[in-house]
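Minutes, methods subgroup
Present: GH (chair), OT, SY

1. OT presented the first of two proteins processed in the latest run. Sequence and structure tokens recorded below as shown on screen.
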Amino acid sequence: MAAEHRQLTEGMTEAGYRRLVEGAPDGICVYVDRRVVFVNDAGVRLMRARSRDQIIGRPVTDFVVAESLPAMYSGVAGLRDVGDCTVAHPAQMIRMDGSLLAVEIVVVLTGWDGERAYQVITRDVSARQEADNALRYQAALVNHVSDAIIGTTKSGVVTSWNPAAEAIYRRSAADARGCPISELVGAAVDPEAIIASDGVAHSTHRSADGAQRDVRVSAAAMEDGYVFVCCDLTKLRRAEQQFEAIVASMAEGVVLIGKDGRIKSINPAAIEIMGGTGPEYIGVDFFAITDQFPFYDADGVNIPPPHRPALAVLRHGVPFYN
């Protein structure tokens, strides 16, 4: 006890301690008998207090959520000699406005005017916690999206391969990492060319079992490589081909026009009705062509061009039947 008393009496006075820690970037407070006897400027700002007077004299438990106290007390109980400190552990602080702040604290056994005291060093880790949460959220997105997300080095060696890439290309992440991306997708992959073409390109890839994949590839440059997003359009493309086959075989004429009235596609039946060979109609004003033909309603009355169904639908967006 005599040795400990000597150490405590040799501890700093308030004036000496203040000079040492006022410029510290972390919040620092000292408590004796569980009441705060000192707090530096950084601690005042951290706690959103107007002045030290709002903090000094109050129990340290006023500023720590109950769930964080057991870990803090457990660490303090293991301190024996002046200068001993706990490991850094997370805690939630209660600020003067009632808001909570994620911090990391270290408690150091010290002396204060001859008494046993504890110095609490508090570091704001809320920004780091938010960044960690954002990274975890982004990782969850990468793992759950339906598109293959592939990271590579500058030379094209795969460094990351998400679950969707495993499903699309039939290769595990363990097998894919460390291999050239071109070998894994069965096609040449030129990130600079993709980026030059607005970051998107269409290509034919092959999975490990040799199946052909129609994909839309997006690429972006990273500090140490590239990231590729490969959207598997195989099922969509097959559906489009089936739809195109059905439309092409219909006896009814089908013409697709844009909002500007120009023809985007036309099936064989419509070409036969309108005359011509087909390609000359693409991009041409549908109404300029069809105004020369008579259109009849169900009673056999010719419909004037300004009142014809296609023009009315384009103008009002209301479907027309019969």
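2. SY then presented the second protein from the same run.
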Amino acid sequence: MRSLKQFGRFGYEQAMSCLFPVVIFASLAVTQILPLPLLPRYDWLLIICLLMQWLMVRSGLETRDELKVITLFHLIGLALELFKVQMGSWSYPEESYFKLFGVPLYSGFMYASVASYLCQAWRRFNVDLVKWPPFVIVVPLASAIYLNFFTHHYWFDFRWWLSGLVIIVFWQSWVTYEVAGTRYRMPLVFSFILIGFFIWIAENIATFFGAWEYPNQTDAWSLVHLGKVSSWLLLVIVSFLIVATLKLVKGKSNNRVDIHAKTNM
């Protein structure tokens, strides 16, 4: 019975952490089915995302520090979208007034929603990291993974080498989390794989509802190639490394403030 309660609590906290992504997917479905007045569909999606972001902060579901992280991801994701669309990796076929070089501005919120999930889950599950590698390793690794999304179009694709390097660097790392007062732990590499796989499932849902389309989906929708899991896995790793680094830096800063306050008492 206790295991069922723990699982139910875990599911509830996960659902709350996924609030922003759920709103995006629901909006994709609803805007495809219902006729929309005045503005194209992509523009309505942008308005919904902006409104949702405002509500998240206004209601206290997200903090201002988390908003800064999410905004950073929005910019990182938008930069990637601008490049990938120009390279023909995927496209946004529908019209939009708020479109930049073929990329609707709502697209950055899809990356921001991943950051929103990570920030929410981190706080709700009181996440802690065990045997986290030094910043001098983590930061260059995250940078190399992100840059490879761009450079592999002109040079060798290092994704599998980078994936192997991630396994080596984080082999002894664990993530611990709390559910209703009980702490659990999971190998960090396994958590990367799980999140990447679920995002691949979400990507299939998103393309089915016309969020964007790959070249093989132009005539009719088809399942996103399973190989895309590796891309999402690496993107999740970049996302996690950025959030973890910022959280650790914030934690050290708070500790210094606490120590300084106690010293002055």
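Chair's summary of item 2: The longest helix spans residues 228-263.
Next meeting: continue with the remaining queue.
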